[in-house]
Design goal:
By secondary structure, the protein is an alpha/beta fold. Helix content is 44%, strand content 25%. The strands form two sheets. Strands 6, 7, 8, 9, 10, 11, 12 and 13 form an eight-stranded mixed sheet that branches. A five-stranded parallel sheet has the order 2-1-3-4-5, sandwiched between helices. The chain is globular and about 65 Å long.
Length: 379
């Protein structure tokens, strides 16, 4: 994509340092225009037609809420998604923002990865909306609704499955909750707090974004869904949103999760070579994988829904990743230690090499869980 083909983002904030930060975050990926007050923002929006607007709430003169109302009242700008940036945290503030027509709400101090992900998600929704203008009103409405709910990273195959099975996902404007069997993966960077204290903010986020980008693409490659980013951690799910009911289907998803973890380990080694060459700290990660029943559904308001999974399976996968006393001494474990539960092991065939570690009572559980270390595939 050439520079001229990049989407245009309008950043609006009355604080110069905030505009500088947003420009630094966005300019590697987008064309950026800036405004330091509401009046200038309305002028730029009307003439330059940005693809998305990041809008501060508290500004002298015309505040962000009023700017958003005027944008939405103008037929020339009402289609532009607006994401509010604010330090306000009260529920009433979010209600005011959404009532004004906002697409999303990001709290200050801003996190560069969150800003980039939210911008990417809402641009995808906008571009889909624009594309669907030529299609039937009913299909257009349904596809936009699905994209708003599943505005996380999903593979093309998962997106296609969602559309083919849209009737089960769209019921009273939100997917009905369901009990499904899925494989949940948690990844986390070892020693992230210590590393973050050693790097300046710009270097830290550049380092972290490179890592997140590589890991997320691998999840998508193996048909998983990146369900959440939690600081430096990633939660991915294999086997949703389409329900898996047969043993073969569940086994296929468990094996995809394990293959994904092994691909992450390979990628970490290459990524670390690049980091070391640039004088950056290498990455070591822990991965926990567990297969079982989860409750899948949407959380949030009618204006902003997030499809997610909850339950004991999710908690167990997270606890497997968190185990600290099983780091291992070999380089593979230092790069990427992978622990799986016995339920996942049952769905793996003989091509995988694993070691039984021991039964461990994980945090928040009463009964011990059989823990296995995944070494790789047998030669």
């Amino acid at each position: 994509m050439t520079f001229e083909q990049r989407p245009t983002i309008l950043a609006v904030d009355d604080t110069p340092i905030n505009l500088t930060m947003l420009n630094e975050i966005l300019k590697p990926h987008y064309r950026v225009k800036v405004a330091n007050n509401g009046t200038k923002a309305l002028e730029i929006a009307a003439t330059a037609q940005p693809d998305l607007i990041l809008l501060d709430v508290m500004m002298p003169g015309i505040d962000g809420y009023e700017v958003c109302r005027r944008l939405k009242a103008n037929p020339a700008t009402h289609h532009i998604p607006v994401i509010f940036l604010t330090s306000k945290t009260e529920v009433e503030d979010e209600e005011t923002a959404f009532a004004a027509g906002a697409a999303d709400f990001i709290h200050k101090p801003i996190s560069p990865p969150i800003v980039l992900l939210r911008v990417k998600n809402h641009l995808e929704i906008k571009f889909l909306h624009d594309y669907l203008q030529s299609q039937s009103e009913q299909e257009r409405s349904q596809k936009i609704q699905l994209m708003q709910i599943f505005s996380k990273h999903v593979s093309h195959e998962v997106a296609e499955t969602m559309w083919q099975q849209r009737d089960q996902f769209l019921n009273d404007r939100r997917p009905p909750p369901q009990q499904v069997t899925a494989t949940v993966m948690f990844t986390d960077i070892r020693g992230f707090t210590t590393i973050s204290e050693q790097l300046d903010p710009h270097t830290l986020f550049d380092w972290l974004n490179q890592y997140m980008d590589v890991m997320s693409k691998i999840v998508i490659e193996y048909h998983g869904v990146v369900n959440k980013y939690i600081g430096d951690a990633i939660m991915a799910v294999f086997g949703m949103p389409s329900s898996r009911t047969t043993t073969d289907n569940i086994a296929e998803e468990a094996q995809r999760a394990v293959d994904c973890a092994l691909a992450m380990r390979d990628a970490i080694q290459q990524l670390n070579l690049n980091f070391v060459e640039r004088g950056l700290p290498p990455v070591g990660i822990r991965i926990g994988i567990f297969t079982g029943e989860v409750a899948a559904g949407t959380l949030g308001s009618s204006e902003r829904l997030e499809y997610t999974v909850i339950g004991d399976t999710v908690n167990t996968a997270a606890r497997l990743e968190e185990i600290r006393d099983l780091e291992g001494n070999n380089q593979l474990d230092q790069d990427c230690r992978i622990l799986i539960g016995e339920t996942t092991l049952r769905y793996l065939d003989s091509q995988y090499q694993t070691q039984f570690v021991r039964h461990i009572v994980l945090k928040g559980k009463k009964e011990p869980v059989a823990v296995f270390k995944l070494d790789g595939k047998k030669i």
